[in-house]
Amino acid sequence: MYAELHCRTNFSFLEGASHADELVSRAIELRYSALAITDRHSLAGVVRAHAAAKDSDLKLLIGAEIAPTDAAPIVLLATDRAAYGRLARLVTLGRRRAPKGECELTLDDIAQHSEGLLATVVGGLGRDPAYGEYRDIFADRGYLLAELHYGTNDAERLDQLVRLSKQTRLPLVAAGDVHYHVAQRMMLQHVLTAIRYNTTVEALGDRLLPNAERHLRTLDEIQQVFARVPDAVRRTMEVADRCTFSLDDLRYEYPEELAPADQSPYEYLRQLTWQGARQRYQNQVPESIKKQLEHELAIIKDLRYEAFFLTVYDIVKFARSQNILCQGRGSAANSSVCFCLGITAVDPMDTDLLFERFVSRERNEAPDIDVDFEHERREEVLQYVYNKYSRDRAGLAATVITYRVRSAVRDVGKALGLSLDRIDALAKNIDGRSEDTILATRCQQSGVDPTSRVGRQLMTLVNEILGFPRHLSQHVGGMVITQGPLCELVPIENAAMVDRTVIQWDKDDLDTLGILKVDCLALGMLTAIHRCFDLIEQHHGRQLSIANIRQDDSDVYDMISRAETVGVFQIESRAQMSMLPRLRPERFYDIVIEVAIVRPGPIQGDMVHPYLDRRDRVRKGETIEPICADDKVNKVLERTLGVPLFQEQAMQLAVVAAGFTPGEADQLRKAMGGWRRPGLIDSFRQKLFDGMLERGHTEEFAERLFKQISGFGEYGFPESHAASFAKLAYVSAWLRYHYQAAFTAALINSQPMGFYAPAQLIRDARERRDTPVEVLPIDINHSDWDCTLEKEGQALRLGLRLVRGLHRAVVDSLVQARTRRFESITDLVARTNLSQAVIERLSAADAFQSCGLDRRKALWQALDQAPKHEQGPRLFDLQSNESLVPMLPKLEEQEEVFADYHSAGLTLRRHPLSFHREQLNSLGVTPAGQLVTCPHDHMVKVAGVVLMRQRPSTAKGITFVTLEDETGIANLVVHQSTWQRYDQAARRSTAMIAYGKLERKNEVVHVIARRLEDLTDRLASLHSPSRDFR
Amino acid sequence: MPLSEATALGNQYDGPPRPSNQHNDGLRGPSYKRTPLHIESHDPFEDHKALEEIAVWCHRFSPLVGLADEDPVETLLLDVTGIAPLFGGEQAMNQQIESAFLQQNLMVRIGLGDTVGAAWALAHYASATLRGRESFSAEVVTACGDVGPKKTPDPFAAEPRCAAQLLELPIEALRLPSAIVETLSRLGLQRVGDLMPLPRNELKARFGAILLQRLDQALGEQPEIIARTHSPTNFFVEWLFEHPVTQQSVIQQVIRQLIERLCFLLLKQDTGSLQLSYRLTCQDSKPVTFEVGCYRPSADASHLWKLTETQLERLMLRDPVTSISLCSIRHDRLSRRQKELFDDDHIRQDSSLVAALIDRMSSRLGRQAIVRCVLQSDAQPEKAYRYEPLVGGSVSRRKNNSHSPFSLLDRPLHLLAKPVALEIYDVAADGSPSRFQYGGKQYAVSRYWGPERIETGWWRQRGVQRDYYRVETSEGFRFWMFRSLRDGCWFLQGAFE
Question: Please, what's the b/e burial string for A290-312 (b: 16 or more CB within 10 A of its CB; e: otherwise)?
Answer without folding.
Answer: eebbebbbebbeebebbbbbbbb
